Amino acid sequence: xxxxxxxxxxxxKSESVTSPERFVFVRDGFYFWAFVLAPLWLLVRKLWxxxxxxxxVTIAVAVSFKFAGAPSYVQTxxxxxxxxxxxxxxxxxxxxxxxxRRWKTLGFVVGEDAELAERRFYAAWTDRAPPxxxxxxxxxxxxxxxxxxxxxxxxxxxxxxPEPGASR
Length: 168
Hints:
- This protein has 5 helices and 3 strands; from the N terminus they run E-E-H-H-H-H-E-H.
- By secondary structure, the protein is mainly alpha-helical.
């Protein structure tokens, strides 16, 4: 089943909290249209920096192979490898861009499709939210580190093993 990451945009000037309708779900996996039409896919998703990097890398590879006198099948293979890389890493490119734009990653959700993933996320998200009349806790809970009583001895055993020299 596909995994989706959930991203929250920064609040607008008129908002104190981001509206859940603006959350973005990014599916992990291979993006066919990013593989077939990488430049167009990057432009439609408004991934400007990724588009510039794609164009620069593609031109640099093409020019270097042309300058080296590589056969046409090598140039075609290189273009196919770049397209495959974009297809496989399309979700990573989107998440990277969202992080650069100061979006927060809220979590991961698994679902057959985007609609089911949204339903699962919002169901779990509303269960975690405090009721309308309750105050949120003042601070996060902190947990103390376990204390060791006394200095370690030579007979200390880690795990569920019997004490050395004890009867079985």
